[in-house]
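R.M. (postdoc): so does anyone remember the format we settled on? I'll just put the structure tokens first.
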């Protein structure tokens, strides 16, 4: 047993919830952002602003025409896998081999590909690390083992994992359609909490394929956390804090939440209010890429995703036009209500003596 522990330590193989559920999951979201999400944004810019370089076909592969954004989106599987490998501290040969693993697991996982990539890439990376530099023909053995294990696992479990992820996502979306008020609260609060915790709400939404009304509730919850913390901590953090939290991440407050969990009351209550308003009153839907559902106002990705969904719905005939109510709903849910409600609720929390000056100060 001691020999095994020593081997795992030497190979930097750490089997823990933090390494896989926080580090790897968070990195996967970054890989998605740098491929699928950026590709979607480029395609939207090209079509909406008639930018020929972005809207025109730049490559035709196997009869499929790709724009610049289309090529970026097509690389989402490899990008996620390499990002996971980077988070797991993979040596170069393992890291580069994960390109093929990511492509295979994402393709075989179907619409639930991100969840398949997460599992397959982690296992392949750790096995690849275990054999790395253990033989004199490392340049052959490491890629063969990493890719072999990854492709075999992809064939064995990726379709089932992908189907499971989509089934769970479908159940959440079905339940939200059936009970928009209760599920609006539940999805908004839980995804918002996930966004502020050191895990990836974006990766969770992507893995579950969370779109539609459930996606809209997720956007509401994320915005409540980001804009809420940014505005109610303005006194302590000024403009730098407003920007870093408002269009960056509310995760910056995690250290302060550990010190005083009560500073989290206002954003959570706000998300419980804006979530059902999004689902019941404004019918806010996220029909863009699922990863956008868990991004909130980070780089305005959530709002770009909602707009992209509108555009796609109009193009497909599912929606006649983008209305003033659509714009009002998005602006109120994503920006105005969190900026107003969160500080007001926090005032009550402060009067109760649960929060004091400096509790939300960022270092």
């Amino acid at each position: 047993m001691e020999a095994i522990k020593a081997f795992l330590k030497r190979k930097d193989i750490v089997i823990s919830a933090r390494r896989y559920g926080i580090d790897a999951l968070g990195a996967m979201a970054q890989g998605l952002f740098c491929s699928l999400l950026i590709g979607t944004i480029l395609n939207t810019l090209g079509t909406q602003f008639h930018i020929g370089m972005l809207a025109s076909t730049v490559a035709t592969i196997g009869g499929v025409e790709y724009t610049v954004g289309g090529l970026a989106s097509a690389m989402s599987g490899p990008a996620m896998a390499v990002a996971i490998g980077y988070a797991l501290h993979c040596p170069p040969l393992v890291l580069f081999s994960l390109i093929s693993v990511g492509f295979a697991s994402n393709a075989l996982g179907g619409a639930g590909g991100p969840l398949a990539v997460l599992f397959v890439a982690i296992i392949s990376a750790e096995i690849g690390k275990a054999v790395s530099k253990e033989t004199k023909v490392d340049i052959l053995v490491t890629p063969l083992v990493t890719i072999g294990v990854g492709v075999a696992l992809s064939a064995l479990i990726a379709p089932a994992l992908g189907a499971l992820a989509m089934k769970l996502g479908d159940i959440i979306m079905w339940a939200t359609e059936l009970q928009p008020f209760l599920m609006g609260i539940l999805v908004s609060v839980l995804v918002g909490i996930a966004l502020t915790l050191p895990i990836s709400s974006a990766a969770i939404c992507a893995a579950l394929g969370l779109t539609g009304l459930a996606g809209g509730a997720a956007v509401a919850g994320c915005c409540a956390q980001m804009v809420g913390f940014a505005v109610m901590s303005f006194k302590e953090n000024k403009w730098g804090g407003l920007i870093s939290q408002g269009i960056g991440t509310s995760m910056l407050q995690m250290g302060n939440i550990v010190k005083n969990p009560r500073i989290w009351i206002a954003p959570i209550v706000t998300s419980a209010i804006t979530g059902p308003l999004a689902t019941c009153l404004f019918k806010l839907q996220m029909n863009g890429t699922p990863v956008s559902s868990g991004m909130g106002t980070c780089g305005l990705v959530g709002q770009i995703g909602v707009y992209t969904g509108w555009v796609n719905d109009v193009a497909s005939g599912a929606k006649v036009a983008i209305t003033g109510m659509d714009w009002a709903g998005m602006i109120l849910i994503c920006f105005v209500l969190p900026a107003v409600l969160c500080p007001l609720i926090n005032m009550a929390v402060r009067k109760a003596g649960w929060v004091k000056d400096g509790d939300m100060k960022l270092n």
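R.M.: ...and that's the designed sequence above, right after the tokens. Also worth knowing: The mean pLDDT is 92. The CA atoms of residues 108 and 155 lie 7 Å apart.
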